[in-house]
Amino acid sequence: MEKKPTINDVARLSGVSKRTVSRVINGATNVGAATRERIQKVIDELGFSPDKQARGLAASRSYLIGLIYDNPDALYIDQVQRGVLSVCSEKGYELVVHPCHYRSDDFISNCINFVRRSNIDGVIVLPPASEANELAKALQNHGINYVRMASVKIDEQENIVVSDDRAALSDMARYLVSLGHKDIAIISGPKHYYSTVERLEGITHTLAELGMTVPPERIIEGKNSYESGIECARTLLIQTPRPQVIVANNDEMAAGVLKVAHEMGIDVPGELSVAGFDDNLFASRVIPSLTTVQRPVVAMAGLAAKKIVALIENKPTEDVDDYIVKPHLIIRESTRKVTK
Prior knowledge:
Elements: H1 7-14, H2 18-25, H3 33-46, H4 52-59, E1 64-69, H5 74-91, E2 94-99, H6 107-118, E3 122-125, H7 133-141, E4 145-150, E5 160-163, H8 165-178, E6 184-188, H9 194-209, E7 219-221, H10 226-237, E8 245-248, H11 251-263, E9 273-275, E10 292-294, H12 297-313, E11 324-325, E12 328-330
Parallel strand pairs: 1-2, 1-3, 3-4, 4-5, 5-11, 6-7, 6-8, 8-9
Antiparallel strand pairs: 10-12
C-alpha cells in the first residue's frame, strides 16, 4: 500500500519548515509569493491533502460551518447547500446542517447547544429562523459567528444577506398592470414572516401607486404549502366576480392554484393568470409553466458563506461588503395579456 504523503514530505521537498507549509495550507498572508507558489506546486504534485482534524487543532478551529433552518422546502434547502458548499470546498470547510423548530420554546437553547456540541466555527441561519432577533442576540452573547439570510436588513452588513423581495414584487405588479389586469388577488404567506410583509407590501403599494386597490377579500393568508394554496384558491375562485389574476407568495401555493383552476374548468391563462415566487424546479415543469420571481438562492448562500468565513478568519474577503441580492421576474405561460 502506497504511503500517504505528509506535511513533512511537503516541507522537505519545498525546502521550508513545516510551520511555513502550515501557514500556506491555512491561508496565512505572511508567506512570500514565490515560496507560496513553490509549496503549492509540491502539494499538487504529491496530491497532499491536509488532515482536517490536525489542521483545526493548529488553527484553533474546527473548519465546520453550521446551517440552521426551519423550512420544509427541500428544493430551497438543496439550493442553499449547493451555494454554501461551493465556497466551503474552496476554503476547506465542511458543512453541518441542523433543522429546528423556531417557534418552539427551546429554539434558542437548541441552536446554541448544536453549535457547542458540534464545535462549529460559525453558523448561517435561514428564514424564517433567521428572523428571530433573539437568536442573533444569543449567538452574539456566546461569541458565535453568524450570518443571517433574510428579506429585510435586520442586522449589520457583515451579518446579513438580503433578498430584495419588495422590489421584485413591485416589478410583478407593474408587469401584471402592463398586461391590462385590473382585478388582482393575492395569497400571502404567514403574516408574521418578514418575507410575507415585504412581498405583500411590494405588490400592494405599487398597485396603489398605479391607481389600483386590492380589496381585503382579495387577500387570503396561506401557509406557504401546496395544500394551503389549494384551500386559498378555492376561496378566491368562488368569489363573484372572479379575480383576473392570483399572485401567490411562493410557487408551491401557485401550483395549488393551478390544480384548483383545472378542477373547476378555468383556463390558465385564458381566463385566469397565475404567478408565484421562488422559481423552484417544478415552476418550469408544471402545465402551464409558471410566471414567477427567481430568487438567486445559490448566489445568496454563496455570499453568506463568504461572509461567515471572513468572520471566522477575521479578515476581509472579496464581495463581503455586498449584502443585497435582487430577485428578478421570470415570465412564462401562466400569465397573458387581457383580451376583450
